[in-house]
Amino acid sequence: MEFMAIQIITIVIAALVLASQYWQDFKERREKKIDTLPSQKARCSRRQLRIRR
Question: Which residues cross the membrane (predicted)?
């Protein structure tokens, strides 16, 4: 029983570590997407303005 409990605890800890790493990566990617979207819109609007002129 003790060995099983130790195994379960180690698996849970490993899962938490992996989940936290994936969550950090996901947050960073989401922030990068939010940062890049406005710049792309600005570039498109600038191109449209040049074409209209």
Answer: 6-23
Helix (H) or strand (E) holding 17: helix 2-52
Q: Which amino acid is at 53?
A: R
CA distance 21 to 28: 11
* Residue pointed to by tokens 């406005």: 38
* Within a domain: 13: yes
Angle subtended at Cα 13 by Cα 10 and Cα 15, rounded to the nearest 5 degrees: 110
**Is residue 27 included in any domain, yes or no?**
yes
DSSP state of 1: -
Between the alpha carbon of residue 15 and those of residues 6, 30, 46, 48, the distances in Å are: 14, 22, 47, 49
